[in-house]
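Predict the 3D structure for this chain.
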Amino acid sequence: MNSFFKPITLIWAVAFLSCSTSHGAPLPAALSSEDGSEKKPGTVKEADDEEYGGTLALKPLGDVPDQAISTASAAIRDVYGWKVVLDKKAELPQIAWYKPRKRWRAEKILAWITPRMPVWADKIMAITVKDISTTKPPHEDWGICGLADLDGPAAVVSTYRIKKKLGKLTPKERKKKYLQRLRDLAAHEFGHQLCLEHCPNKGCIMEDAKGTVLTFDHSTSMLCDDCKKILVGRGLYKTK
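Done. Predicted structure below.
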């Protein structure tokens, strides 16, 4: 990895999975546009900035559905109490394209977005619908759902793999499961950005996926008490 980064980068990785479809009602999101105005009708109004733990810039790479953006935003707000502001859309950087597997290298995306973090943001997360990958020994190119710098500025999440292996459900049920996976994925990667490593407690949102997207499906969508204590100890989590 480029020495620009901290030495530890955490991933939520899954092997290649068969395709399926997806659904669900949009989750409310504390989401503003870059100029501070509301992104679109229907999103909840921002509270005062002092109520938030920090500001995350959420940057779409390529065309990303509004519902995916609002779902990821809501996850960060609800689990960690951070403000999420929509950054300018950009195309995926060509430097990250991995031609042999026809997908995008996540660590190169992190290298590209980190110096582009807005001055008003404390951290940045990219979101894309495209397939992403990284090196995970012994695999030179391993497909993943997300990648984040541990206790660092940047993360990237992809909706590509969480749409797979949704099971024999109705279209409505499949979409609901997909959106829940996306919520947990965004919260998981942001947890790494705040300093959390993979958690051994089953059901914790920081549990290691261990190579399968199905790990999402038994998540409690919450931090366990052990992970909360770590964040509280560093002043990164406000108890309610």
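The mean pLDDT is 81.
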